[in-house]
Amino acid sequence: MPRIVVLLLAALGSSATFATSRSVMADDTPSERRRTISVSGQGEVNAAPDLAILSVAVETTAPAAGAAANDNAARSAKVSAALKTLVGKDDKLTTTRYVLEPRYEPGKRGEPSEPRIIGYVARNEVEVETHKIDAIGAMIDTATGAGANRISSLQFTLSNRNEQLRAALAKAGAEARAQAESVASALGVKLKDVVSATTVTPPFIQPRRFDAGMMAEARAPTPIEPGSVSVSANLQVVYEIE
Question: From CA 56, how far away is CA 172, in angstroms rounded?
C-alpha cells in the first residue's frame, strides 16, 4: 500500500510544516508512525571588525608604453615603501593587479576611422590586509601622499568568525524552537525530541564595504568609521510531536 503523507502549513514568520506519515506492510499492519513539525530559524550577530582590506592603485599615462611603465614603477615603489612603514608584522601587502594598455583617440561622430593609439596607461594595484583598524585613515593619506591616485576599495571584516558563528547558530536554534512551540500550541500538540537539524544555507559573514574612485590629491587626515559586520545563520529543525 502506498505511503500516505498529510501536510498542514502554518505561517508564523517562517515556514512551518506539520506532517503525519504511516508506512503499511503487505499485511496492512502499521509498522511505523511519526508526526513532525518542521521550522526554520534565523540568527544574526554583529561584531566589531578586526581586519581591514584596503586596495590602492597608481595609474600613470604617457605617450610611450615604456614611459608609462617606468613612471608607474617608480611611484608604485614609493607607495609600497610608505605603506610598509605602517603595517604590522601580521599584516599583508601584495600586488593584486598590473595593467599596461593603449589609449585610443576617440573617433569623430559619423566619420569611420581606424583606431589610433595616442598613449598608454599603466596601473599597479596593491592590497593591504591589516589588523590596525584605527590606522586605515593614515594608510590612505600615506598612500595618496606617496603617489597613489586611486582608492579601489575598502572593506572591514573578521579574521576569525567562529565565535560569532556559534552565537548566530544559537540564536537560530532558539528562534526555531520558539516557532515550533507556537505551532504546537496552535495545533494542540506537544513537542518531543529533535529529529533533525540542518543549516539551510551556509553561514554568511557580511563585511562592511566602501567603494571609491579616483582621488585627485591626498587629504589629511581621512576619517574612517569601521562600524560593525554581521554574521548570520539559518537553521531548519524537525521536531517530533505527540
Answer: 38
